[in-house]
Automatic annotation (TrEMBL):
EC number: 6.3.2.1
Binding site for ATP: 44-51, 162-165, 191, 199-202
Cleaved signal peptide residues: none
Biological process terms in GO annotation: pantothenate biosynthetic process
Primary localisation category: cytoplasm
Catalytic activity: (R)-pantoate + beta-alanine + ATP = (R)-pantothenate + AMP + diphosphate + H(+)
Pathway: Cofactor biosynthesis; (R)-pantothenate biosynthesis; (R)-pantothenate from (R)-pantoate and beta-alanine: step 1/1
Additional observations: The reaction proceeds by a bi uni uni bi ping pong mechanism.
Residues where beta-alanine binds: 76
Name of the protein in question: Pantothenate synthetase
Species of provenance: Saccharothrix coeruleofusca
Amino acid sequence: MTKPLTKDDYTPGGVTLHHDPDRLRRVTRALRAAGRNIALVPTMGALHEGHRKLIREAHVLQNTVVVVSIFVNPTQFGPNEDFERYPRTLEADVEVCREERVGLVFAPGVEDMYPAGGQVTVAPGPLGEQLEGATRPGHFAGVLTVVAKLLNIVQPNYALFGEKDYQQLTLIRRMVRDLNLPVDVVGVPTVREADGLALSSRNRYLSEDERAAATALSAALVAGAHVSGQGADAVLKAARDTLAAVPEVDLDYLELRAPDLGPAPENGDGRLLVAARVGTTRLIDNAPVLLGAGDE
Ligand SMILES: Nc1ncnc2c1ncn2[C@@H]1O[C@H](COP(=O)(O)OP(=O)(O)OP(=O)(O)O)[C@@H](O)[C@H]1O
Ligand SMILES: CC(C)(CO)[C@@H](O)C(=O)[O-]
Ligand code: BAL
């Protein structure tokens, strides 16, 4: 039998902070048994307008209680990456969640998510070694493993992810399909600053000059999309030229792929993806392109 919920578990109209996975699972189970849908928005915190957009899209789904998880997942960071430096702003994040009418915030500690002795992980397959995975070995095994754990803890009807991390979204869709996970994955378009820069928690690492240079990533995507009717070579050249004009931008990759990140078609829908370092900060962005439509 499901134990009845108390105000410490869940308060309608308020936000309740949970740290313990088993207790949260009991709460979301009881809410589902009471006829509510659960929508999970996984994040690493330092919440910004991009996260707010995910939460708002979650509210659009019918009859949902929105759960935001906040966890800086150590297993998706390489040894020379910014795990220690990554912003941790739990109090402000809970306030954002209150403003956005989130019902439950799940902020586990590392020991809650990874008690000693864990051995089994999710293998992302070949796509996990390409693009982001080529520069960040093991990154997607860490992402998919923690997302699988979050899905199993929260057992949501829906899970929402941003297109800003397009390869992550693609791999999560694959995992859900390949492992028959009972959840609907909802992708949300990228929220941008007025000058085009994709919102990202890591933007706060940028100096004023780096912040100005960082607009080259989205500008390159726009330049590529602008000549998409001329085909793949023209798209890549236009994007590459835009990036090369800004010396502070150290390009990691610029690639044109199919929407599922397989090889790009000659004609039809494609996805243009870019990653670059600006100073010590690594940024990513991507955009859809319609290839060879023939009107350029
Ligand atoms: N600008 C954005 N628009 C839409 N969704 C976003 C945006 N930025 C992040 N998200 C999504 O929010 C979720 C949580 O991402 P995360 O907490 O890592 O934020 P982030 O800003 O991507 O941080 P990082 O600097 O680590 O890339 C992911 O699904 C991510 O794709
Ligand atoms: C999905 C995620 C929360 C897993 O740690 C993270 O990769 C992120 O914030 O995009
Ligand atoms: N936003 C994706 C998480 C990461 O860069 O580790």
